[in-house]
Amino acid sequence: MNGKRSADPRVIVALDFPDGQTATEFVRRLRPGSCRLKVGKELFTREGPGLVKALVEQGHDVFLDLKFHDIPNTVARACEAAAALGVWMINVHASGGSRMMSAAREALEGCGPQRPLLIAVTVLTSMADRDLEELGIRDGAEAQVRRLAGLARDAGLDGVVCSAREAAMLRAQSGSGFTLVTPGIRPQGAALDDQARVLTPAEAIRQGSDYLVMGRPITQSEDPAGVLASINRELVTVT
Questions:
Q1: DSSP state of 19
Q2: For the segment 130-179, what is each residue's pLDDT rounded down to a tens digit?
Q3: Which among 63, 66, 184, 198 is least buried, having the fewest CB atoms inside 10 angstroms?
Q4: CA–CA distance, 215 with 227 (Å, rounded to integer)
């Protein structure tokens, strides 16, 4: 399957742009192989699969971040459709449960060695304990992340999305073969924006993260390629 290799870029740049033209103009400033690219709900809803296909054809590894969450059959068919675009990674919500996640995994088994990585979202990094309490989850974010990550692992998924602050816990729980993808990463001194649980890139890797999702610190920089190169150099020293 697609997965980690020692030379893999660790940074996934979130293309949180309002339209495909803006995203495409930005991507031209990045060298394929220097990072991965994440296409989320806003951009995909506006531009559709054509943009994803174009990015793949340009040599970029794409994380299609649509967080599927529905009945098992619907999620399975959606994962098949995503895989047909040639993407590197797709995700579902672990809160959809074991049957849904297993159906998604089984739907991708026919893709062969080039099947995308399938990961599950645990607790969104914008959510704090008080937000979970509103949903009736009273034992906190860490316990909920541990619970949902265990369900994803047992369903045969490749890994989870989690906060880097939970990475060490999940690495100990699930071992070295379980992929941890962490949003909420900010270089030292950067604004937190709407993220509640954050670490710097080097701190996240030390905690056990495999891939780091970063948006505004790169996409809103005057020199995004330079910022990315600086982060990549920093990560080499800790890996």
A1: S
A2: 999 999 999 998 999 999 999 999 999 999 998 888 899 999 999 989 99
A3: 66
A4: 11
The vertex-6 CA angle with 174 and 61, nearest 5°, equals 90
The structural domains of the chain, with segments of one domain joined by +, span: 11-238
Residue carrying structure tokens 């296409």? 39
Q: Residue 42: CB partners within 8 Å, gap ≥ 6?
A: 16, 18
Predicted structure pTM score: 0.90
Instruction: Considering only the C-alpha atoms of the chain, give the largest distance between any 2 of them, rounded to a whole number of Å.
Output: 46
Q: Which residue has the tokens 């020692």?
A: 6
Distance CA 172, CA 167 (A): 9
User: Over the range 178-210, which residues count as b (16 or more CB within 10 Å of their CB) and which as e?
Assistant: bbbbbbbbbbeebeeeebbbbbbbbbbbebbbb
Q: How many CB atoms lie within 10 A of CB 35?
A: 25
* CA dist., res. 43 & res. 62, Å (int): 13
Name the CATH code of domain 11-238 (choices 3.90.960.10, 3.20.20.70, 3.40.50.1000, 3.30.457.10).
3.20.20.70
Phi/psi of residue 176, nearest 5 degrees: -75, -20
Distance CA 159, CA 175 (A): 10
In sequence order, what E strands does the chain have?
11-14, 36-39, 62-68, 89-93, 117-121, 159-161, 179-182, 211-214
Can 4 be counted among the known catalytic residues?
no
